[in-house]
Specification:
four-stranded mixed β-sheet; 343 residues; globular; Spore Coat Polysaccharide Biosynthesis Protein SpsA, Chain A; 2 domains; 43% helix; 13 helices; alpha/beta; single chain
């Protein structure tokens, strides 16, 4: 459950500080340093603070950041309890009128932060602002999403994700065909850049740390929207998002955790009955795809087979007991650092 926010900032202090940027790192030292450098360089015309929360990295991230950037706050979480929990640690220390959740694999160009703050000042109806994310080659990153629904899961039984993401008729979940040249309201903006007013956080709470890594931004946007605020995309607020360039291979942990987060999102936002229906539909789709995946194990592609098996086992268990959030620390293994960098 999300924490109660009670930072040590007076209202007068908060009026004097425009923005708090929170970055959560986990074994991503080099890209985190690049992100911090871009923030420090391009925030000089703002009254702001930068907080980096490190989720028990083993690559020397904390020491390097403290040596290179003595003026920023670097918090060692002491344990890796997930992306949402890490952000909440930073949010609890925030002093700004706005809080920006920023991924460690994001670079902010000149004027991005100042423009975002100015826009939020002029639009109090906005509860969360998302940016126009560009990949390293200049193409647009997919960072806008619709709320997951049973119709999305149903169509995925029969159609591959590459089709579902492009055709609205079949439950498009990534706003296929959206005109990204104009500002507009959406359901969800990706967690790589989420600017939220402090007054909204005090009303709806921070991220729900029952989510370890995936879908926490979906639930947060859901809560903000339910409170009557807009989730807005702005095409002129641009960022460079490098992490999504490297998709990596689907690990068993990642496959299971994505499924867990989807079920948890449905249970929290739509109730247990809808969540159980979602589990049943996902399992049907996975069992059907199993006829294609099983031969891969015999052909030497064990990685994909193991990911499929982990997800299927989880869904079978979820039929009898819906997940309540987080996962056991012993499961936080495998390509977790790489997965986190692609948030």
């Amino acid at each position: 459950m999300q924490e109660v926010i009670s930072p040590d900032a007076s209202e007068l202090d908060r009026q004097c500080l425009d923005l708090t940027i929170v970055i959560v790192s986990y074994n991503t030292r080099e890209i985190t340093i690049e992100a911090v450098e871009s923030v420090v360089k391009h925030s000089r015309n703002l009254a702001c603070e930068l907080i980096v929360v490190d989720n028990q990295s083993s690559d020397g991230t904390v020491a390097e950041l403290r040596q290179r950037f003595p003026d920023i706050k670097v918090i060692s979480a002491g344990s890796n309890d997930g992306y949402a929990r890490g952000n909440n640690i930073g949010i609890a220390q925030a002093h700004g009128r706005y809080v920006l959740v920023l991924n460690p694999d994001v670079l902010v160009p000149e004027d991005t932060l100042a423009s975002a703050v100015a826009y939020m000042d002029a639009h109090p109806e906005v509860g969360c602002l998302g940016a126009h994310a560009l990949l390293e080659d200049g193409s647009q990153d997919s960072t806008l999403f619709r709320y997951l629904g049973l119709h999305h899961i149903f169509w995925k039984i029969f159609l591959p994700s590459s089709i579902l993401q492009k055709i609205r008729l079949f439950g498009d979940i990534r706003y296929a065909g959206l005109d990204c040249g104009k500002e507009q309201d959406v359901d969800i903006v990706a967690g790589c850049f989420m600017m939220v007013p402090w007054r909204v956080i005090t009303e709806v709470g921070p991220m729900d740390d029952r989510f370890f890594m995936y879908s926490e931004e979906s639930e947060w946007c859901w809560r903000i929207k339910q409170a009557g605020y807009a989730i807005r995309f702005h095409p002129d607020i641009k960022i460079m998002h490098y992490g999504a360039v490297s998709t990596g291979q689907m690990s068993p942990w990642k496959a299971e955790e994505i499924a867990r987060s989807h079920v948890l999102f449905l249970r929290i936002t739509r109730g247990a009955a809808v969540a159980r229906a979602g589990v049943a539909l996902m399992l049907c789709g996975d069992l059907l795809r199993g006829f294609l995946v099983l031969p891969m194990a015999l052909a030497g592609n064990r990685a994909r087979f193991l990911a499929w098996r982990a997800r299927a086992v989880f869904l079978i268990q979820a039929l009898f007991r819906l997940p309540e959030g987080q996962v056991l620390p012993s499961l936080h293994t495998g390509s977790l650092a790489q997965d986190t960098s692609q948030k």
